[in-house]
Amino acid sequence: MIACMARSPVLTFTEKGIYCPAGDFFIDPWRPVDRALITHGHADHARPGHRRYLATAAAAPVLRHRLGRIDLDTVGYGETRRIGQATVSFHPAGHVPGSAQIRVELGGEIWVVSGDYKTENDGFCEPFEPVACHSFITESTFGLPVFRWPRQSETAKRINGWWHTCIAEGLTPVLGAYSLGKAQRLLALLDRGIGPVLTHGAIEATNQVLRAQGLALPDTVALTPDTHLRDHPGALLLVPPAALSGSWARRFGPLSTGFASGWMQMRGVRRRRSVDRGFVMSDHADWSGLNETIREIGAENIYATHGYTEIFTRWLTESGYNARIVPTEFNGEDSESGNAA
Amino acid sequence: MKAFAALFARIDQSTRTSVKVAALAGYFREAPMQDRLWTIALFSGRRPKRAVTTRQLREWAADHAGLPLWLLEESYPVVGDLAETIALILPPASGGSDHGLSHWIAYLKDLPNLPEETRKARVLAAWDRLDSTERFLFNKLITGGFRIGISQKLMTRALAEATGQDPSDLAHRLMGDWTPDTVDFETLVLAADPQADASRPYPFYLSYALDRDADTLGRPQDWTAEWKWDGIRGQLIVRNRQHFVWSRGEELMTDRFPELARAVDALPDGTVLDGELLAWENHAPMGFNALQKRIGRKTVPRSLLRDAPVIFMAYDLLEWGGEDQRGLPHATRRDRLRAALADMPDDRNLRLSPCIAFDSWDGLARVRAGARAAHAEGVMLKHRDSPYLDGRRKGDWWKWKLDPRTIDAVMIYAQSGHGRRANLFTDFTFAVWDGDDLMPFAKAYSGLTDAEFREISAWVRRNTQQRFGPVRQVTPHHVFEIAFEGIHESPRHKSGVALRFPRMARWRRDKPASEANTLDDLRRMLAACG
Ligand SMILES: [Zn+2]
Ligand SMILES: [Zn+2]
């Protein structure tokens, strides 16, 4: 470590995002740059306008689908690349299919940028792998002890139970979920013994991209303006969150709305979204997931980004870590922003 | 606690009133008597005596979860509810319990007499046997504030459904200062109650705003017109040598208007009048603000009686000589009312709302234009042949108000102000009914007096359901009349409409939330003036 002290740090925080001076690249930058390493395809990480992109091969189809014609180079998980003086590799983050943590090594000093991650194996995306490092830049979207996720199987049971009840009561269940990641994770958990799953166009578009790259997704029926529910008895509608409110869903008659997200842990958020049922299911690490990961990887420097960074870093500092807040473009993010769920 | 937790979950998970009421009615049919009684008590704002302080509760919870206290304190504003915060941070329970609601209330009742260490051990033992929802409810029993989207009115409806009792009878029974320790379910809810019979009001007949040209109503001589007063609709009842005053919000307000006590001297037993409570001075109404001072308080200081004296302006006769008059034509009821109030001395504080003579609709329109000068909001039209119906019915009664650009809305969110008003809640979000849901449609932050802002601020603090940073979600309870300059279509708003310059014209304390306007009303206004 002493050898590193004289050099500039492996990664720095600039107004364009996380930057590696030794390799002259950025990770998930929010302003256009020459070379961007992208952890995953969510809009708050993969932005348009960069000259060159690097991501995992598994993330590439979604990136192309969302960003159009981009100059995109891909790597496999664990494969190393030399960029300038730095050595980089991508490691599974368990967040959405293709998502990665990015490891950057320079002269024996290792930094890891987590991107978004989830520690529970959802049986669907590449399971999270803790990566030993000296400095860890971690998301802390749910960095409060009130966030503890029930096991996925438990939530799945609740969702299927609700689906059952809806059918018995003559209501159409409409389940809201983010279209990349959460929606496909749910597809694998929804019990087809109850009925078919009809998917909103935004979700079905992502499904097609993932199917085309070889992911096995259960069958879905794409909703079109001509879809009649009577042709699909017992169906559940899987839609992006925005379609839950407003007029889109109303044409399907009496509904019961549900929403699957980590924020549903809090009664206040559940009520404010005014959905009938909230299901606690997140693609981010909960309090224990964050803390266990930090313990496991052995980093002494922790940089927190997203969510309750101030509280989380204070907690880490008191627990003996060298913890700081990463300056981000968006402060004052609210609980219903973007893909953070 | 399992049955109560299941009830809570069903109520909490639904945005539909009918589902909530059905769940509650089911519970009132099946739960043990003592649990039913406690449920009524909790949902009507009563709670067991505080067994431990919230300070102790926080410390014990943090300790048990192995977290520093500050971390719990920082999590609390994010969650917005202490009972919920604690339920969420505690480690999973190691066992379960089949004990019901009243067991846990009794469990808490024993605590104050025990040494602190034992008290802590008992609370921790309880947490270790309750699942997350049960824990949240157990904590709520300690911290108080059982507001879960069930108004007293809905609870009364559910109880009526479960027991076959009359809702207004029940509403009366549930008033007063009973506790589950002083009364049992049988006595409170089921036993015969002659007092309730004596005070029982009739359902109010509510009018619609006139939505067409007056001259389409037919011949002027078939209608009576009177001022649309700007007060609180009420019923004055005299039976068994006692008097009762009910507001339209089905609230018994007898004690708030001691001026009307002499009605007993003025009217025979078996009399029920429909009319308007008005603050009154020098032979004229004082305006709604003066009256408003009288509504918020249960006891009336002498100075207020002097500054804002109240009269009852009668306009209909519902019962006379103990006989229901509602089936008679309006003109007949009016004649009888006039006779009943003839030669009434001023100090009885009872007045007859005069009829406005008119022989053409144009003539009446001119009279209506002068309503402000008469301290009225417009005119009321009632068909001479109309019986007194219950609820809101179209056709026989119309209110023809001067300014149609107001809407009665329910306050659902509050936010504190800036500068001088930083300690007050001054920014509010209002909603109208969309079926059983409340649809937010406007924000307003002006129109109330400082005293009213102080009062509503204190209420917001006590009735916060959740916090979202500076925004507090409050119990949907208070109705405000929102005045505005224009209304137009707006796809950007969830409600589909946007108002120009919305402001709080007045605090409608007389109206229950259920009688706020609807999204359809807004859309009609949009069609009419948009
Ligand atoms: Zn993401
Ligand atoms: Zn993200």
From TrEMBL, chain B:
Catalytic activity: ATP + (deoxyribonucleotide)n-3'-hydroxyl + 5'-phospho-(deoxyribonucleotide)m = (deoxyribonucleotide)n+m + AMP + diphosphate
Recorded GO MF terms: DNA ligase (ATP) activity
Pfam family, one: DNA_ligase_A_N
PROSITE patterns: DNA_LIGASE_A1, DNA_LIGASE_A3
The EC number(s) this enzyme carries: 6.5.1.1
Sequence ranges assigned to domain ATP-dependent DNA ligase family profile in this UniProt record: 303-434
SUPFAM superfamilies named in the record: DNA ligase/mRNA capping enzyme, catalytic domain (SSF56091), Nucleic acid-binding proteins (SSF50249)
Keywords assigned by UniProt, alphabetized: ATP-binding, Cell cycle, Cell division, DNA damage, DNA recombination, DNA repair, DNA replication, Ligase, Magnesium, Metal-binding, Nucleotide-binding
PANTHER family listed in its UniProt record: DNA LIGASE 1/3 FAMILY MEMBER (PTHR45674), DNA LIGASE-RELATED (PTHR45674:SF13)
Protein name: DNA ligase (ATP)
